[in-house]
Each structure stands twice: as structure tokens, then as C-alpha cells.
Design brief:
Length: about 230
């Protein structure tokens, strides 16, 4: 499969993720169970739709982890990440069009669970960063584990989707759960265009922490499976 087709698949998958799952965030007013299921179910649907084309990363943190694990090369990493970011912007644009405005599109922000517990903004940022790193670590470890074993190929999409549901169930009350830089980028930019700057101001957390979590997961997985 050529890189262009893989990138198109990644763009479409990420657009669907942002439009549908973030859409559930907005119209259910962040119902925890509905939101967690929405993100997980989109992953399941896309895994069995485009997984055989691109691997269905639809997440720069996953692509970065796969690059570190030497499962994709640098050219593929760059193409995937650009396609995912473009898809996220497209998904946010579609969602805003459907909602009739861009002020609220499910962008990630530090939630009251953290802000009420810590008065220092610096500490709030550190806690949110740590949480997103750990959640991404758990999610990517699950991906690496299930995709590294051919016998799990038939159920890998379900396992990955359930792993995403799990991290959302825990993390929504703290950060809204990103574990995906593209998923946070698209809504933040479009919300800023609509006049809501909060997600954009905290965007750096949701860009860097998931990448760091993916890196740690890839290094840890390789270390645990290295044969002495």
C-alpha cells in the first residue's frame, strides 16, 4: 500500500474520530460513559475499516510509538502525523458546522477535579501532564501488545477500542482525556477561531504529554520483550 493511500486513510479516520466522538462530548454535555464509549467505538469501527490500509493509528502518539518501535519509518511518521492533524481540523470543522458554531467542540482542558485540588496553576499543569502521560502509556502499551501478536489480529480492534474506553472513563474528570495530540489540536484551533481560547492556552499539555507517554510505552515494551 503506497504512502498516499495510507495518509488518506489516516486523515479520514482522524476526522471521523474528532467529528463523531467530540460531537458526543458536546451534545451529551460530557456524559462520562457516553463519551468513553464514543471514542472507543470509533476506534473499533475505524480499525476494521482502514486498519488493513494504514494500521489505523489516527493518533500522532501511536504513530510516534510505532516509529520508535521501528514498525514505520520516518517518512511514514511525517506523513501520518500531517494527515492526522489535517483530519482533526476537518473533523472539528464539520462538527462546528453541524452545531452551528465553533465555541464548544470538545477541546481538552484541565477539569475541576484538578483545579479544585491544587491552587497553584503550575501544579495543575504538572498533574495534568503526568495524567495524560500515564493514560497514553497504558493505551499505547495495549496497542503494542495486541498488534505484535498475529494470533490477536482478529480481535485487535476491539481490544484497542476497549483500552481507549478505559482510559477515558478514568481521565475525563481530570483532563477530558486526550491521549491523542491531533484530537486535541483540531477542536482547540477551531474553538479559538470561534472566540474560545481556553483549549488553545492549555494545548501544549495535550500535544507533548501523549507523545511522551507513547515514547515511554514503546521503550518499555521493547525492554520487557527483549531477549537477553
Amino acid at each position: 500500500m503506497n504512502l498516499f493511500k495510507k495518509c488518506v486513510a489516516e486523515c479520514i479516520g482522524t476526522a471521523v474520530l474528532v467529528c463523531l466522538a467530540c460531537g458526543v462530548v458536546v451534545w451529551t454535555n460530557v456524559n462520562v460513559v457516553a463519551t468513553a464509549l464514543a471514542f472507543g467505538l470509533v476506534i473499533v469501527a475505524m480499525a476494521y475499516s482502514i486498519g488493513n490500509i494504514s494500521g489505523c493509528h489516527i493518533n500522532p502518539a501511536v504513530s510516534f510509538a510505532m516509529f520508535v518501535a521501528r514498525k514505520i519509518n520516518g517518512k511514514e511518521l511525517l506523513g501520518y502525523v500531517l494527515a492526522q492533524c489535517l483530519g482533526a481540523l476537518l473533523g472539528a470543522l464539520l462538527l462546528g458546522t453541524f452545531l452551528g458554531g465553533f465555541q464548544t467542540l470538545g477541546g481538552n482542558t484541565i477539569q475541576e477535579t484538578i483545579t479544585s485540588a491544587y491552587s497553584s496553576q503550575t501544579v495543575q499543569y504538572l498533574v495534568a501532564f503526568l495524567l495524560e502521560t500515564i493514560l497514553t502509556f497504558v493505551f499505547v502499551m495495549a496497542i503494542l501488545g495486541v498488534t505484535s501478536k498475529p494470533q490477536y489480529a482478529a480481535i485487535s480492534g476491539v481490544v484497542i477500542g476497549l483500552a481507549l474506553v478505559l482510559v477515558h472513563l478514568f481521565g475525563i474528570g481530570f483532563t477530558g482525556t486526550s491521549v491523542n495530540p491531533a484530537r486535541s489540536l483540531g477542536p482547540a484551533i477551531l474553538e479559538a477561531i470561534g472566540g474560545n481560547m481556553k483549549s488553545l492556552k492549555e494545548l501544549w499539555i495535550f500535544l507533548i504529554a501523549p507523545l511522551f507517554g507513547g515514547l515511554l510505552a514503546s521503550i518499555t515494551y521493547r525492554g520487557l520483550h527483549h531477549k537477553a
